[in-house]
Amino acid sequence: TLRLIYTTTAVQRKNVGASGPEKYTEAFIKKQIEEFNLGKRHLANMMGEDPETFTQEDIDRAIAYLFPSGLFDKQARPMMKHPTEIFPEQRKIQWGEDGRPFHFLFYTGKQSYYSLMHETYEKMLNVLKYQEQLTAQDLLPQNEKRNLAGSRWLTKIELEEMLLEKLSDDDYSRFVQLLQKLITLPCSDIEENYIKKFSKEVPVQSQKVVVEPLKYDERGVAFSTGEGTRKTARATAVVYDNGTGKITVNEIDVLHYFPVLQDREQLLFPFQFLDRVGKHDMICTVSGGGRSAQAGAIRLASAKALRSFVTEKEVEFMRQAGLLTVDPRVKERKKPGQEGARRKFTWKKR
Amino acid sequence: DDKLLSEPLSHPDFFNVKELFSLKDLFDARVHLGHKKGCRHRFMEPYLFGCRLDQDIIDLDQTMQHLQLALNFTAHIAYRKGIILFVSRKRQFCHLIESTARECGEYAHTRYWQGGLLTNSHIQFGSGVRLPDLLIFLSSLNNVFEPHVAIRDAAKMNIPTVGVVDTNCNPCLITYPIPGNDDSPTAMELYCKLFKMTIIRAKDKRRQSEVFDELR
After folding, report:
1. Which homologous superfamily does the CATH classification assign to the domain defined by B59-113+129-215?
2. To the nearest whole angstrom, how far is the Cα of A108 from the nearest Cα of chain B?
3. Residue A38 has pLDDT above 90, yes or no
4. Which residues of chain A lie closer than 8 angstroms to B122, CB-CB?
5. B173 shares contact with chain A (CB less than 8 Å)
6. Name one GO biological process term (chain B) (predicted).
7. In chain A, which residue's Cα lies nearest the Cα of B122?
8. For the whole model, what pTM was predicted?
9. Which one in A19, A64, A211, B145 has a CA-CA gap of 20 to 30 Å to A75?
10. How far apart (Å, rounded) are the C-alpha atoms in residues B188 and A330?
11. Which CATH number, 1.10.340.30, 3.20.20.140, 3.30.230.10, 3.90.1150.180, labels domain A215-321?
């Protein structure tokens, strides 16, 4: 005969399969809440404060005082919070004492999702029945367009939070298709309350840029300002009306500041585009960047300033010509293991 | 308590299910119509009355007997507070069956059947689940015209099955087959009505017997 002399706990533990995340019963959570409230009162007494008006912030301060911790991660330090915040909201056990599940679709696996589909289908049947009644009496309301632009459906994650259940992409798309179908029916106004639960308002962002009005200086001449950037150059331009086409950059004449023709052409381009070559004066300040970058920055600044002098249609033309868009190109960074941003080191076969 | 459970078993038709339906009702609900001759399953031949213009006609006398046995069985299961699960994979009648189950107080599964629902239940649902005590198939094929996986799974888990078998279905593993049409809406509504009435009757009778016992 063999006698068992020495065993380890690993051998004694039976081969039980993984049972998934721990499920908390309602009684357990209730007990935790009672213990938390008792503990809150004890803590208040310990700190010498009134137990009735002891808020969560007071609790946090008290715990930080009584249990000082040098741990870096805030979530690793001792905390005392309400059990609903600590224990994740999950489904409590779905069946009663006699073993019968509570929900009639429990045995499908995804009970809340399928019950949602069931309810939505029922609403659709109601709408169709109502529609039939109206057609029998010839009272169909036609051509009622609902505003679909300002609302969106709930995302998959939001729906998962609502149902407390994992969904697959297929399930989600099917649900959205059902809702779309429901909305397209003519008499779906009856079930609008139900549909609103699954739609969210999207604030329409106005993309119109407000054009600034003209300002007048002491001599009564109209002027307007604009700012522009290109690479690392920043420029501000002030464009005056009733001028001769004189351009001054950093108190230096344009011919002296930009000896190259290409830069001066860049400066002229907005005025050329609007056929106002000799009609405006310009005074600008620019800093940073190189020769070409400063020219581009002043061009953008002057185009922005000219918006106030010009009709809306011409502003739209300027935008389409690319005079009002900031050039996003900047110097690309050098990467390690390469000589430059793109250039690699010379490859030697051996 | 023992008397409560053993008394119904002594009568052949304790819940009087015969009065719920008649041959004429079955005929009006077009239960006798089967599929075409080419779709016929070999094991359904004993249940057929004949074949007219290539369409199989199911023998309604046999259907009456099978239906009576099946309804009697469901009534006994409901009387003993068993869990009944309605299964079907017909999309047309999914809503009808789910509402029937909800009104009875029993359960339904008319959606995609995940592989381990019955056989792997401890991992799918959690330990300590109670599996259904009866499976009722209102259409024993799935969407690809193959026998539903649940028939085989119920046989593996020793769960009795009641099923409406059409002329293209395999009645082998079903404990109480009911040869009949599973495609017409009238037939399905009739079946749902019958099952609902039997289950509600059985539950009422159980409650009455318990009340009588308590009064004594």
Report:
1. Glucose-6-phosphate isomerase like protein; domain 1 (3.40.50.10490)
2. 6
3. yes
4. 17, 19
5. no
6. translation
7. A19
8. 0.70
9. A19
10. 71
11. 3.30.230.10
Per-residue confidence (pLDDT) for residue A12, from 0 to 100: 64
Answer yes or no: is pLDDT of A104 > 90.
Answer: yes
Query: Does any CB of chain A come closer than 8 Å to the CB of residue B92?
Result: no
* Phi, psi (degrees; rounded to nearest 5) at A156: -60, -40
User: pLDDT at residue A90 above 80?
Assistant: no
Outline which parts of chain A fall under CATH 3.30.230.10.
215-321
Element (H, E) at B118: none
Of A274, A281, A260, A279, the residue nearest A310 (C-alpha): A274
A345/A338 Cα distance (integer angstroms): 6
Residue keyed to tokens 């609103």: A196
Q: What is the pLDDT of residues A53-77, one digit of tens each?
A: 888 999 999 999 999 999 999 889 9
Q: Count the Cβ atoms, other than its own, within 10 Å of residue A186.
A: 14
- pLDDT tens digits along B5-58: 898 999 889 999 999 999 999 999 999 999 999 999 999 999 999 999 999 999
Q: Chain A contact for B114, CB < 8 A?
A: yes
> Which of A95, A121, A125 lies nearest to residue B130, judging by beta carbons?
A95
Angle between helices B2-10 and B185-215 (to 10 degrees): 130
Measured between CB atoms, does B122 come within 8 Å of chain A?
A: yes
Give the whole-angstrom CA distance, residue B44 versus residue B59: 11
CB A238 within 8 A of CB A249: no
Q: Give the three-state DSSP class for A47.
A: helix
> B84: distance to nearest CA of chain A, Å?
10
CA B149-B152-B156 angle, to 5 degrees, is: 135
Contact A294, A250 (CB under 8 A): no
Interval A109-142: pLDDT, tens:
899 999 999 999 999 999 999 999 988 888 777 6
Mutate to test the interface with B, among A97, A107, A167, A174 (most CBs of B within 10 A): A107
Q: Which one of B80, B85, B95 would you mutate to disrupt binding with A, by most A Cβ within 10 Å of its Cβ?
A: B95
A231 Cα distance to chain centroid: 28
Tokens 């699960």 correspond to B85
Nearest neighbour of B101 by CB, restricted to A94, A104, A110: A104
